[in-house]
Amino acid sequence: MSDTRSQLKQIAIEQIRRRTLHAASFRELGKVAGIKSSSVHYHFENRDALLLELVKDYEQDFFIRLEQRCHELSDPGQQLQQLAALFLLSQQSQYQCLCLAFAAAGDETNDQQRAAVEQFLQRLETWISAVLARAADHADSAPQLARVILSALEGALLLDRDQPQAPRLNAVSQWLTTLIRSHSDQQPETL
Amino acid sequence: MSDTRSQLKQIAIEQIRRRTLHAASFRELGKVAGIKSSSVHYHFENRDALLLELVKDYEQDFFIRLEQRCHELSDPGQQLQQLAALFLLSQQSQYQCLCLAFAAAGDETNDQQRAAVEQFLQRLETWISAVLARAADHADSAPQLARVILSALEGALLLDRDQPQAPRLNAVSQWLTTLIRSHSDQQPETL
DNA sequence: GTCTATACTCAGATAGAC
DNA sequence: GTCTATCTGAGTATAGAC
């Protein structure tokens, strides 16, 4: 699977998530990988093609990890916490959400890339909504609440950039637990 | 107040909020204003100085508008709705939050600028928290809930970029009304 | 205040040698 | 696969003419 190629993709992801989309230039990728930018062009048709590939990979990887974590969990509240844990882990590693970085880049992305980002967001919204629907009597409001939760998680991750204590993301994570508690019957044991 | 200077600042704000921080280059500002980039340098020491000025202006303008809207409102629920309305208006005009654009720009900003952004965020958090504290019995959780609300509003605004229907931001706005309803005694009249 | 001219750097992309 | 060399265009910034 072409070692250099996948290495370049990994470097690109790091640049985007730790810095900005803009920072993932062919020159920079080459510099980090120890080759010239012209050699990077050998592995990818152009920059836009690479970026699109990254978004699609990201969606795959994200949901694989999410499902792995929720795999043997039946409680909706615990599943939501796993999602929050994924965001908290990301924050601790000083990683942004790749898709949010794309969203923030605005017209520096093309239509295909924007569509791929939107697909990721809607898939995650759908996932959250399905979890909520199983949690309580709020089956009607689940899609709406899912949008709020996604917005809060993504917003908090971005706002807590350079904030080691992650005050916003922790607040969101904590809020999620209270949300589920009021939606389901079970009592919390130890917090 | 130097017409050209304030015009350049206005153009810069538009570039950042409609596109990205990156799009607010001296060349671009000059092009839109009809002068050369070297002439832009006459009005601002350098780009970083301009950007810092913009963030400080933004904080001022934002809270002036917010206070104007809440001026003769005593109900906390209505005040929160005015905040949401500000975000919805922004979305309709296809404007991002300037501070979120800075946050997303990561290391393309300097320490001073990041500090100014963080100051804006904390001031808004404090404002929301104060409103919440007056709303109900949740005085303890007000600061935490304020962080969730701010994250949700900012996140939704960014996620709904290029989404004319603004599904996330509308969901957040609606969620805010239910929040207050359950926190206060009064019944909603007409939505 | 604005211009031209210039210096330097960075970006994407391609041609052709090895 | 990677290199050098090159083109084009964009960015910050400065010096000095008008």
From TrEMBL, chains A, B:
Provide the HTH tetR-type domain boundaries: 2-62
Q: Which UniProt keywords apply?
A: DNA-binding, Transcription, Transcription regulation
What one GO molecular function would you report for this record? DNA binding
- Does Transcription regulation appear among the keywords? yes
Q: Which Pfam family, any one, appears in the UniProt record?
A: TetR_N
Q: Which residues form the signal peptide?
A: none
InterPro entries the UniProt entry points to: Homeodomain-like_sf, HTH_TetR, Tet_transcr_reg_TetR-rel_C_sf, YxaF_TetR_C
Question: What protein name does the entry list?
Answer: TetR/AcrR family transcriptional regulator
Q: Which organism does this record belong to?
A: Thalassolituus pacificus
